[in-house]
């Protein structure tokens, strides 16, 4: 594989073999995957073989090995010219994403004497862990079907939030095209009891404070004055989304031969977007996306109740955006505006200023791009920029450099907790192993990832957030 350094923050994988387009990797040399045996860049090249792919197979600064697609991968296929959709380009946690809540009145100094009480109550109020039941006990499958089609909108209609929440949510809180009939009985069973829960792994709820504003005017527009208290929620569609991915990878694997499709990795199973199998996957994926958005909406309300009781303050939604999704979008390709299926797997949508999908009060700034760091390190808010060449996409986090098994084997959870608390970060974890798996040493340097995103023209820095307390699955 030939890797060419085009700029300090952009590398090119030259086309060879079955590649239809080049690979473009946004990274500094320090962020490039480099461990012996690491297949991440091979996965980028494999994605470049997909039928209908246009421009390039892109890798974001936090890229690392994943299922089929690398995590931190972006690819767009031309829907009307044989373009395919691949569940591996979305991942198992469909619509995993980030929501950021901001207090318009509470700052770090005012919170400090109440922080421990807030964290203790969040510990009890936020369900998390493998298989954990959520805060919304659905009475029957009909109620779940309304979530699958209505997403956060349905949650708000049922009294779980306010209308303004939806104005600050991608797609207004619900992705069109969802069809509950395309969701298997097994997926429904897994989803019935988990609405309003974090799950496990790298999912979290974190109380934060604005540490630095890089663009004071844009930060002020977003309510991110230095010292302001925020809450970041990172979770997705739980077992329901995982089952939907599993179901459709299997179905597409069986169907590819009928369309004459061959891929270098069976984990890249795909079918044309316009095929019955492609349409069924997009409808089920949209249903999972809506489940994920309702999930974050329920967790928002649980968090608000704690802050109202313990600090007598409110929390507003700054933005809610997915980083595991495939969407049909219009983009220029070879001088023509085309409908493309943009796969973003571990990549955050990053719309530029004045994009028609932005809330009117944020139009001049650009879309808030929410990028969490690791437990104990900073998180960031960026904003979309007009010149982004990767279909308005950027990084979604720090990116793992150690597997969960490696991290757990080399980390003492009790020592990690003590170190975090000595640094002023209160930790409320559901298991010792879960904490060990998420040690900061298991991830890339979030500051380097953000700097690369900024300098590569994928987004621009607005504010840096630091953790005060974290609730972990």
UniProtKB/TrEMBL annotation:
Family annotation (InterPro entries): RtcB, RtcB-like_sf
Cofactor: Mn(2+)
Reactions it catalyzes: a 3'-end 2',3'-cyclophospho-ribonucleotide-RNA + a 5'-end dephospho-ribonucleoside-RNA + GTP + H2O = a ribonucleotidyl-ribonucleotide-RNA + GMP + diphosphate + H(+); a 3'-end 3'-phospho-ribonucleotide-RNA + a 5'-end dephospho-ribonucleoside-RNA + GTP = a ribonucleotidyl-ribonucleotide-RNA + GMP + diphosphate
GO terms under biological process: RNA processing; RNA repair
GO molecular function: GTP binding; metal ion binding; RNA ligase (ATP) activity; RNA ligase (GTP) activity
Superkingdom to which the source organism belongs: Bacteria
Amino-acid positions noted as binding Mn(2+) 2 in the UniProt annotation, renumbered to this chain: 234, 323
Catalytic residues as annotated in Swiss-Prot or TrEMBL: 396 (gmp-histidine intermediate)
Class of enzymatic activity (EC top level): ligase
UniProt-annotated binding residues for GMP: 202-206, 323-324, 372-375, 379, 396-399, 472
Binding residue positions for Mn(2+) 1: 93, 203
Family under the similarity heading: Belongs to the RtcB family.
Subunit structure: Monomer.
Protein name in the entry: tRNA-splicing ligase RtcB
């Amino acid at each position: 594989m030939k890797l060419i350094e085009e700029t300090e923050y952009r590398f090119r994988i030259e086309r060879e073999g079955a590649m239809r387009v080049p690979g473009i990797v946004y990274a500094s040399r320090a962020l490039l995957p480099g461990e012996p045996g690491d297949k991440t860049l091979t996965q980028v090249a494999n994605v470049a073989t997909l039928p209908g792919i246009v421009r390039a197979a892109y890798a974001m600064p936090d890229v690392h090995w994943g299922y089929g697609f690398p995590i931190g991968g972006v690819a767009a296929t031309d829907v009307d010219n044989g373009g395919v959709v691949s569940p591996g380009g979305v991942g198992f946690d469909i619509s995993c994403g980030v929501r950021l809540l901001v207090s318009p009145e509470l700052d770090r100094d005012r919170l400090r004497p109440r922080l421990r009480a807030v964290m203790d109550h969040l510990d009890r109020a936020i369900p998390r862990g493998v298989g954990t039941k959520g805060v919304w006990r659905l009475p029957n499958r009909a109620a779940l079907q309304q979530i699958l089609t209505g997403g956060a909108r349905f949650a708000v209609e049922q009294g779980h939030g306010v209308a303004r929440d939806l104005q600050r949510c991608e797609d207004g809180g619900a992705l069109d095209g969802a069809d509950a009939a395309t969701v298997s009985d097994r997926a429904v069973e897994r989803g019935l009891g988990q609405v309003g829960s974090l799950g496990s792994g790298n999912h979290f709820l974190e109380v934060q404070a604005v540490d630095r504003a890089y663009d004071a005017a844009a930060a002020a527009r977003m309510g991110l004055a230095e010292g302001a208290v925020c809450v970041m929620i990172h979770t997705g569609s739980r077992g329901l989304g995982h089952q939907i991915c599993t179901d459709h990878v299997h179905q597409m694997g069986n169907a590819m031969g009928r369309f004459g499709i061959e891929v270098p990795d069976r984990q890249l199973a795909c079918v044309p977007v316009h095929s019955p199998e492609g349409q069924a996957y997009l409808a089920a994926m949209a249903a999972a996306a809506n489940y994920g958005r309702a999930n974050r909406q329920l967790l928002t309300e649980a968090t608000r109740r704690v802050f109202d009781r313990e600090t007598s303050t409110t929390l507003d939604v700054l933005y809610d955006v997915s980083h595991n999704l495939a969407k049909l979008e219009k983009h220029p390709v070879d001088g023509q505006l085309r409908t493309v299926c943009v796969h973003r797997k571990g990549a955050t949508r990053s719309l530029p200023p004045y994009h028609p999908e932005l809330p009117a009060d944020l139009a001049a700034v650009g879309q808030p791009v929410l990028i969490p760091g690791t437990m104990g390190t900073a998180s960031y808010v960026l904003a979309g920029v007009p010149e982004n060449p990767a279909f308005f996409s950027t990084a979604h986090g720090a990116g793992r450099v150690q597997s969960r098994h490696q991290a757990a084997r080399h980390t003492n959870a009790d020592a990690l907790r003590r170190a975090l608390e000595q640094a002023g970060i209160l930790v409320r974890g559901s298991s010792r192993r879960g904490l060990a798996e998420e040690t900061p040493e298991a991830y890339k340097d979030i500051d380097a990832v953000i700097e690369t995103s900024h300098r590569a023209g994928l987004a621009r820095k607005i504010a840096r957030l630091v953790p005060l307390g974290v609730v972990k699955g």
